[in-house]
Amino acid sequence: MNNSTHIHWLAVCLLFFCSLNCGQSAKLAKVEDDDKTALRDWRAGETVSADAVRNFNIDSCFLQTSIPQNVLYRMRGNSYKDNNHIKLNDLCYVKVLHWGFDNKIHIGEMVCNRIIADKLVIIFRTLYEQGYQIEKMELPDKYNADDELQMRANNSSCFLYRNISGSKQLSKHARGLAVDINPLYNPYYKDQANGTRKVQPATAKKYCDRTKSFPHKIDHNDLAYKLFTQYGFKWGGDWKSCKDFQHFEW
User: Is the pLDDT of residue 250 over 80?
Assistant: First the structure.
C-alpha cells in the first residue's frame, strides 16, 4: 500500500468514527431533551436520567403545589366527586421522584390532604435518596379511579374519594390522609366469619403470608414503615381485626 492509499484509508476511518460519535451525541442530546420536557411537564410514569434530574434541580422534583388545572381535569368525576366532606382547596398536588423496580428514576405524582403534604415530600425524598423501590406512583384516575385495578397494577397512591370497602363509612383516602405503597405486594386481607378470606387486590393472595420472604414486603424493618411511623402515621399491618400492609394513615 502506498502512502496516498494509506492516508486515504485513514481519512475514511476517521470520518466513520466521527459520524458514529456524532450519531451517538445526537441520540444523547435527544434523550436529554426528552427528559427535560418530561420533568418540565411533570409526566408521571416516565423515566428520566440522573443527569437530567441534576440539571433540572432536584429540589424542584420534590415539592407540593396547588392542584394544576390539567390534573383537576383528570380528577373531576373520577377520583374527586363533589361532596360535603372534602373540598378541592383542602387538597394539594405532590411531585416526587422514585426508583422503579427497573432500577430507573421515575416521575411520580400524588394528591393528598394539605395537612400531610410537607411530610410526604420529606418521606418520599428520603425513600428516593435511599434507593427504595416503588413500582408506580400515578393518580388513580389512570385506572378510572378503580381501587382494585390500581392495586393490581401495583400503583402507589393517596387521595381517592371512596368509602371503606363493604362499608358506608368514608375511607381515610377520601380525605387524602392515607397512603398505599406497592399494594400488590402488601395487600389488605380480612378473615370472614364463614372461614373465607377477603383479599384486596384479589390477585395478591400469595403475598398475605408474611412469614415468607419476598421483595418489596413492608414490615417493621422496612424503610417506608420506619419513615411513615416516624412522621406520625399508623400502619395497617399492625391492625388486629384485619391487615392492610400497604396502608399508612394519618
Answer: yes
Of 127, 116, 133, which Cα lies nearest the Cα of 172? 116
How far is CA 64 from each of CA 43, 69, 187, rounded to the nearest angstrom?
15, 15, 28
Read off the pLDDT of residues 101-145 as tens digits, 9 standing for 90 and up: 999 999 999 999 999 999 999 999 999 999 999 999 999 999 999
Tell me the C-alpha distance between 171 and 177, whole Å.
9
The answer to whether 47 touches 104, Cβ cutoff 8 Å, is: yes
Q: What is the pLDDT of residue 170?
A: 93
Taking alpha carbons only, the member of 28, 27, 51 closest to residue 39 is 51
| Separation of CA 178 from chain center | 14
Indicate whether 165 pLDDT > 80.
no
User: Grid coordinates standing for 65?
Assistant: 403545589
CA–CA separation, 78 vs 185, rounded Å?
25
Residue spans of beta strands (DSSP E) within 6-150: 47-48, 63-65, 91-99, 105-113
Q: Which three cell numbers mark 226?
A: 420506619
Residue partners of 42: CB distance under 8 A and separation at least 6: 95, 107, 109
Q: CB of 218 within 8 A of CB of 181?
A: yes
Contacts of 220 by beta carbon, 8 Å cutoff, 6+ apart = none
Return the percentage of the chain with pLDDT > 90, whole number.
Answer: 82
Sheet strands side by side (includes 234-235): 178-180, 247-249, 234-235
* Range in 54-68, 102-116, 166-180, 236-250 the model is least confident about: 166-180
